[in-house]
Amino acid sequence: MKKPVEVRSNFVGLILKDARLPAPNHGHVVLANSAPVLLYQISKHDTRILVDVPGKLPSVGTGQLHEYLLKTVLPDLPSSLQAPFKAALNSPDRLKTMPNSFLPPSVNRTEGLVLLGDAMNMRHPLTGGGMTVAFNDVVLISKLLSPKVVPTFDDTRLVLEQMNTFHWKRKSLSSVINILAQALYSLFAANGIALFYLSLTNR
C-alpha cells in the first residue's frame, strides 16, 4: 500500500558568522512565535541556523521568504543572534530550503527492492532521530538477510518474508522516535497561550 508523504513545514538554512550563542558549544531550540528555530555551531566562526516555516513556503524569487524571515523570525531570536541573522539574510548566499516530511513505513512487498532509513520512513528532523532509525534498520536487515538465514536472494519468497519480519521488528525503536519527533514539533510549532506558558517554564 502506498502512503503519501505529508509535508507540514520547510526548513530554511543559513550560516551565521561569529554568532554568540546563549550557551556556547550546545545545540539550541528557540521557541519562536512562528515555529521552532534550531541552531548549532559547526566551526569556530560558523553557526548553522534552521528556521522552520510552517505550511507552504513563501516565494523565494519574489522576496516573500526574505521578508518573512526578517519581520517574523528575526524579532523572536535572542538579541545576540539578531545582527548575525540579519547579516546572513543580506549576504549574497542563496537561501537553502528543504521540506520537513512525514512518511509512515509500509511493508515491502516489491521483489528486488529494499528500502531503509528515510527512503521508507520519515519524521520531522527536529529531534535528529533519522540517523538513529537508519542505523537500526541496517543492523536489523543485516541479521534478517544474512547468508545463514537467506542463503540466496533468488529465494524471493523468503526475502519478502524477512522484509515483513523487518517491518515489525523495527517498530520498537522507530515508532518511539517517530512519535517523539511529530509530537514535539506539534507542541513547539503550536500557536496560542499554552505554548507561551510552556516556554516560560523552561527559562
Write the layout of secondary structure elements.
Layout: E1 6-17, E2 28-31, E3 36-41, E4 46-54, H1 64-73, H2 79-89, E5 96-102, H3 130-144, H4 156-169, H5 171-188, H6 193-201
Antiparallel strand pairs: 1-4, 1-5, 2-3, 3-4
Helix pairs in contact: 3-4
Would you mind describing this structure in some detail?
This protein is α+β, with helices and mostly antiparallel strands and about 200 residues long. It has 2 domains: about 5-100, D-Amino Acid Oxidase, Chain A, domain 2; about 105-190, no CATH class. It has helices at about 65-75, 80-90, 130-145, 155-170, 170-190, 195-200; strands at about 5-15, 30, 35-40, 45-55, 95-100. Strands 2-3-4-1-5 form a 5-stranded antiparallel beta sheet, sandwiched between helices. A hairpin with a 4-residue loop joins β3 and β4 (about 45-55). α3 packs antiparallel against α4 (about 155-170).
Proportion of residues in helical segments:
25-40%
Order of helices and strands: EEEEHHEHHHH
Number of strands: 5
CATH topology of the largest domain: D-Amino Acid Oxidase, Chain A, domain 2
Sequence stretches where pLDDT stays below 50 over 5 or more residues: none
Instruction: Give the number of helices.
Output: 6
Structural class: alpha+beta
Distance between the termini: 45 Å
The averaged pLDDT comes out at 90
Strand percentage lies at 15-25%
CATH class of the largest domain: Alpha Beta
